What does this fold into?
Amino acid sequence: MTQRLRRASGCFAAVFAVLASLTAGTASAATTHTTGVVVYMCGFPMIGQQPLDITARFDGPGTVAAAGTFSPSAIAGTATFSAIHNATIFSAANYDGVRGEVTAPLTGANLTPASATVTGLDVPEQITPYVPGPRTITFAQDATTTVPSFTAGTPGSATLALGTTFKLELDFHKRDGSWDPWTLNCTVKNTNPAQNRTFAPSIPVV
It folds into this structure.
């Protein structure tokens, strides 16, 4: 009888440990936070200020304790050239791809610091034939990306948003195999009402 009780007790302990680990995993699961399309005006060589559509996302904690610290992870996004710019910049000028890096300032609400910058987001080499319509390139965090840490403020919620500036340091690939360096310094387009640059959902602070 004692041996049976010991076995039952051991089984109960094992089941409890599994349930506890599952519960803990659910509570600490990361949440993906995304922006909508944010339009920036970027300075292109020869053609001046032109719009560029940016989207971004990151993984953050499901919740964060007040005064707790976290760093965004799995940061990634897209930059989309309009159909007209794809036709003129890429097709007419004989470019068919890019590579490079992105610098993305962030602003925070109920977070310290209130602003910080992600540097070294990778734009992997993306060479594709011209197809009429918009052209979208991707960028993503890699091992060389520098990502800031944020400390949560008071209980409630905290948010991150894309900053008012955005920079793409790109090499544009020509069909003859050569590369031309372009730096696109961008500023968020002024609209009324102002564009929503905030990542959603917000992060609960407990």
Summary: Residues 33 and 200 are 5 Å apart (CA to CA). The chain has two helices and 14 strands. The longest strand covers residues 95-109.
